[in-house]
């Protein structure tokens, strides 16, 4: 064979559990003399994640730099939100470095405990004088250095618990009551606690994660669609009997109506104005007008609108593509784990992929006016301590799954 052709050595390696062999490129000799070994982890995934984080830091500063001009934030400095955001990122990175060292077998064993802790925190946040109220919602537990939001932990906890549940109930996938009812009860209990805050956006994300893992885990399709229909009907009834949420839906359908333009449709109309002003290449970094006290929550829920105004269609499209690639890569790592008979790790990865992709989709849809306004941040980018922390912890778990997958394919141990 010509020296210019790649000669693959060690094409077959032990599966790791003694059950057979898997095709794997252990080392490849390019030109016949220099071996190129597999990466220990997915460096491209890490690069995309940090690119999103870096852009988020820049845009959070840009979106919040003028806030001290508002009497509501008169006691804050121009860099207050930037410093808090960077501090949260530092804590999140340290936590991610710790989590990536923990084997997935540990997370599988502790999944029910983590879910129980999340439920306890969801109860504690509702206790007066403990939970912090912001904009009529009691969602945060003050920790001094950070306001922790238990619903963010609940998103990770449900991904772990649902994956663990499917592994334990694998033999009951075709039986509706045995396979689905306990999981529905768990999600319903979380939903009751979240609606007491209220935080409907988080409940929708958590329910979607649970449904997605059940479906990917092999639950009968008819059962899946029945359960999805029950959840959708429940949300519809909630909207019907809640005047505030119903008005948000009506405002979304006609935001320019004078009845809503200065009320429930105010954020949406100014988000659309920001997107329109950005055109193709944007007004330039720092040149947003809508962030100057016109667009509420510009550094959190509506950060993408500021990106659209300052960086234009090109900036928004770049963010969308990076989230699409990241979500697709997470799903690929999950499928790879399942192919290696690591069902818990694979389903957990796919649950995290659903979380990141679906929440990003909702936030982008709200900013672009194609979905009703919901209080969901843009993962990895929007200002928020506990959200960034749990995003990084979840992605560290995905990276750990990837590392263990590669170790198994090289004939080692996870």
Description:
The chain has 414 residues and is mainly alpha-helical. The chain folds into two domains: 7-36, no CATH class; 43-409, no CATH class. Helices cover 62% and strands 7% of the residues. The protein is built from 14 helices and eight strands. The strands form three sheets. A three-stranded antiparallel beta sheet has the order 1-4-5, with no helix packed on it. A three-stranded antiparallel beta sheet has the order 6-7-8. The longest helix has 37 residues, at 303-339. The radius of gyration is 23 Å and the shape is globular. It starts with 6 loop residues before the first strand and ends in a 5-residue tail after the last helix.
Topology:
Blueprint: E1 7-9, E2 12-14, E3 21-23, E4 27-30, E5 34-37, H1 43-64, H2 80-99, H3 104-124, E6 132-134, E7 137-142, E8 147-148, H4 150-168, H5 176-179, H6 181-195, H7 200-216, H8 221-241, H9 243-253, H10 258-261, H11 266-278, H12 303-339, H13 343-368, H14 385-409
Helix pairs in contact: 1-2, 1-12, 2-14, 3-4, 4-6, 4-7, 4-13, 4-14, 6-7, 7-8, 7-13, 8-9, 11-12, 12-13, 12-14, 13-14
How would you characterize the largest beta sheet? 3 strands, antiparallel
Coarse structural class: mainly alpha
CA-atom Rg in angstroms: 23 Å
Gap between N and C termini, in Å? 35 Å
Number of E-type strands: 8
Unreliable parts: 1-39
Number of helices: 14
What form results from the Cα inertia axes? globular
Q: How many structural domains in the coordinates?
A: 2
* SSE order, one letter for each helix or strand: EEEEEHHHEEEHHHHHHHHHHH
Mean pLDDT, to the nearest integer, reads: 84
Helix content: 55-70%
Strand content: 5-15%
Q: Strands of the largest sheet, in order across it?
A: 1-4-5
């Amino acid at each position: 064979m010509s020296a210019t052709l790649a000669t693959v050595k060690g094409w077959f390696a032990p599966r790791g559990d003694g059950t057979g062999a898997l095709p794997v490129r252990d080392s490849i000799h390019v030109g016949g003399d220099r071996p190129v070994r597999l990466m220990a982890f997915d460096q491209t995934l890490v690069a995309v994640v940090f690119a999103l984080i870096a852009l988020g830091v820049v845009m959070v500063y840009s979106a919040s730099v003028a806030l001290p001009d508002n009497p509501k934030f008169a006691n804050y400095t121009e860099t207050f939100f930037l410093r808090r955001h960077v501090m949260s990122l530092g804590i999140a990175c340290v936590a991610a470095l710790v989590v990536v060292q923990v084997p997935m077998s540990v997370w599988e064993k502790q999944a029910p405990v983590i879910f129980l802790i999340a439920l306890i925190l969801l109860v504690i946040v509702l206790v007066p004088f403990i939970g912090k109220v912001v904009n009529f919602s009691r969602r945060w537990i003050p920790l001094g250095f950070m306001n922790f939001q238990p619903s963010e932990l609940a998103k990770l906890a449900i991904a772990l618990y649902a994956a663990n549940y499917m592994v334990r109930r694998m033999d009951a996938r075709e039986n509706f009551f045995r396979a689905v009812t306990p999981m529905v009860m768990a999600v319903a209990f979380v939903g009751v606690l979240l609606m007491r805050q209220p935080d409907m956006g988080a409940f929708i994300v958590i329910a979607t994660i649970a449904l997605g893992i059940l479906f990917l885990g092999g639950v009968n399709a008819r059962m899946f669609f029945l359960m999805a229909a029950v959840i959708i009907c429940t949300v519809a009834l909630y909207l019907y009997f809640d005047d505030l949420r119903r008005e948000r839906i009506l405002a979304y359908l006609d935001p320019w109506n004078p009845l809503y333009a200065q009320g429930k449709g105010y954020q949406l109309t100014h988000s659309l104005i920001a997107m329109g002003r950005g055109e193709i290449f944007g007004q330039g970094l720092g040149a947003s007008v809508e962030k100057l006290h016109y667009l509420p929550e510009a550094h959190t829920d509506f950060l993408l609108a500021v990106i659209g105004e300052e960086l234009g269609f090109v900036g928004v499209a770049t963010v969308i593509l990076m989230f699409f690639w990241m979500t697709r890569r997470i799903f690929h790592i999950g499928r790879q784990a399942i192919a290696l008979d690591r069902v818990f790790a694979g389903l957990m990865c796919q649950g995290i992929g659903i979380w990141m992709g679906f929440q990003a989709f909702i936030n982008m849809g709200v900013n672009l006016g194609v979905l009703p306004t919901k209080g969901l941040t843009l993962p990895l980018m929007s200002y928020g301590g506990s959200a960034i922390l749990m995003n990084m912890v979840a992605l560290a778990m995905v990276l750990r799954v990837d590392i263990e997958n590669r170790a198994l394919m090289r004939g080692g141990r996870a």
